[in-house]
Amino acid sequence: MAPVGTEEMSGKIHWADGLVIAGYFAVILVTSLWSTCRKKPTNAESYFLASRGMTWPFVGAALFASNIGSEHFVGLAGSGAASGVAIAAFELNAIFILLVLGFLYLPVYIASGVSTMPEYIQQRYGGQRISIYLTLLSILLYILTKISVDLYAGATFIQQAFGVDILPSVLVLLAVTGLYTLFGGLTAVMYTEAIQALLMVVGGAILMIASFVKVGGYGGLLEKYPEAIPAVLGNGSCGLPRQDAFHIYRSTSTGDYPWPGTLVGLPIMGLWYWCSDQVIVQRALSARNISHGKGGTIMAGWIKTLPLFMIVFPGMISRVLYTDDVACATPETCERFCGNPVSCSNTAYARLVIGVLPDGLRGAVLAVMVAALMSSLASIFNSVSTLVTLDIWRRFRPKASERQLLVVGRLVVLAVATLSVLWVPFVYTSDQGHLFAYIQNMQSNLVPPIAAVFFLGIFWGRATEKGALAGLLVGLVVGVIRMVMELAYGNPTCGQLDTRPAILKDVHFTYFAIILFAISILSVVVVSLVTEPIQDRFLWRLTWWTRHSTNLRDPIDSDTEPLVNAATPQKGGGMEVDEPVATDTGWYSTWVTYWCGAPSRAEDARGVASRKKRLREGVSVAEDRKWKIAALINAGVLFTAVISLLIYFG
Question: Within a 10 A sphere around the Cβ of 220, how many other Cβ atoms?
Answer without folding.
Answer: 15
